[in-house]
Amino acid sequence: MKKLLVVLLVCAMAIGMFACAGAPPATDTAAGDGGGAATQAVDNGSGAAASDKDLTFVIVPKVVHEWFDAVNSGAQAQAEVMSKQLGINVKVDYRAPSTADITAQNTVLEQAAATNPDGIALDPLDYEGSKQVIEEIQAKGIPVILFDARVPGSGLTAIGNDFAEQAELEANRLAELLGEKGKVALMHGVTTAPNHSERYETFKEVLAQYPGIEVIDGGISQDNIETSQQQAAATIAANPDLAGYLCVDAAAPIGISAAIEEAGKQDQITFVGAENLLQILEYVKSGTMVESYSTKPQMQGALSVLMLFDAHMGMELPQFVDTGILHITADNVDEMITQAKAGASTPAE
Fold first, then answer.
1. Cβ count near 140 (within 10 Å)
2. What domains, with CATH codes, occur in the chain?
């Protein structure tokens, strides 16, 4: 009974945080995957534990990046609320690899596990490349969950949005804006990352339904702003008739937008981007990026802490927790910019 009361309390705190965020409504904010998977309990390697001791949860992103800073912001805010309500110190240990490299990420995971935390949330660069390390961590009794990534068959709870749905929304919206014709460039991110690949493949599937649209390779960002700008600049130079651009990660929107402006083609290239970082919002406001669809990084961080707490308590977790998709347009971008400049750390709802 004590476990149930604590879990209900934490869930109530989460609802309170989300309700106070005040951001525009998402395209889809329902928890679960819409097909019943949310009710499938999974074992994340946890054993039941007492709730009266200080807790430390580790967040391991793909790489040092502003988008992951937003994830950390949401996680830290959630931990602060939980600490006050539960009367214990809930700490978030944020450990970002300096480069988007699987060896570097595995090293960070191993170092984190050596501190014997109460749970680890991971955004994997390459799940198969980290699988052995993850299993070794679970064997120590440390719960592991995923955020911003879904790996079917892994047995790990995943927190994030429906990546295929996000890509469908972006691709269909771009096709609509282009009048269903023109040359469109697709930029990949980290090719081994499950979320990036799902978005990229969905882009191709959706755009294949439009006979008037020609899809071309728009480069690979490696989740790096400078790289994405270089790749976009080369693509734009090689394709003077380029009509549209799509991308799969949070670095590329900034790099692609900079390349479009550098080429002076804001009125020729229609760019539907992703995420809600301040620089991205500024590009939406200026019109260089016409719209953006965000995965709500702050909420992913907050819910990662909540799921790790439940796993630590020995509770069964859902297969997937859907944070929904935030649609950013010229109509709501000013409000989003105000929130970003204020340093809002609570999850967007």
1. 10
2. 2-15+34-161+298-323 (3.40.50.2300), 163-294 (3.40.50.2300)
